[in-house]
Each structure stands twice: as structure tokens, then as C-alpha cells.
Write a structure and sequence with these properties.
The chain is mostly beta strands. Helix content is 0%, strand content 55%. Strands 2, 4, 5, 6, 9, 10 and 11 form a 7-stranded mixed beta sheet that branches. It has a 4-stranded antiparallel beta sheet with strand order 1-3-8-7, with no helix packed on it. A hairpin with a 6-residue loop joins strand 4 and strand 5. The protein is globular, with a radius of gyration of 13 Å. The mean pLDDT is 96.
Length: 115
Amino acid sequence: QVQLVESGGGFVQAGGSLRLACVFSGPIFNINAMGWYRQAPGKQRELVATITRGGTTDYADSVKGRFTISRNNAKNTLYLQMNSLKPEDTAAYYCNAKTVVRDYWGQGTQVTVSS
């Protein structure tokens, strides 16, 4: 079983920055891609950013130019650098790992952006 543990969420004012981290463990050689998703109260979970095993990244239009996803394989850690945060970025953020068999999810970390 792949295990994912997020950290780095918190409370920040609009325009501020946060960096989320997701430490992954287990049979990580099965992971094809990883990503960050978020879910605000009353809304569906949505894709924020993804990164493939080869390092190709993709972003939701709402975060392009502000967020950066990266992966440190030596530390088994996935990151999400979030700059120029907006109140609409407030949500629980989840780390995701995709294998051929299934998706794995972390427990989530809350990000709250005040106006």
C-alpha cells in the first residue's frame, strides 16, 4: 500500500504564500503520476496540479502562474508551492498517487486564505 502524508497547510492572508509537502512511502515504484487536489466546503474535489513520473506538469487554469508542483525523489516528497494566494484558494488540499491498479490519497491539509 502506498502511503501519503501531507503537511504545510495553515492560515495566510491574501497575497501570501504556503508550501505543501506530501511524503510518500510503500511500493512507490508502482506510482505513475502524482498530484494535488482540493475540496472546498460544499464543492466537489478538483484537480490543482499533476506531475508525471517523467516530470511533466499540468495545472488547473485557476492556479497557473501562481502554483508550482515539484517532486524530490531522493526525499520521497511531493511539493506544492502556492504564491499569490486568494480567498478562493481556501480548501482542504489532498495529495494523490496514481498506479495502474488504483489511486491513493492522503488525509488532507487545510489551507485558509483571508481577504
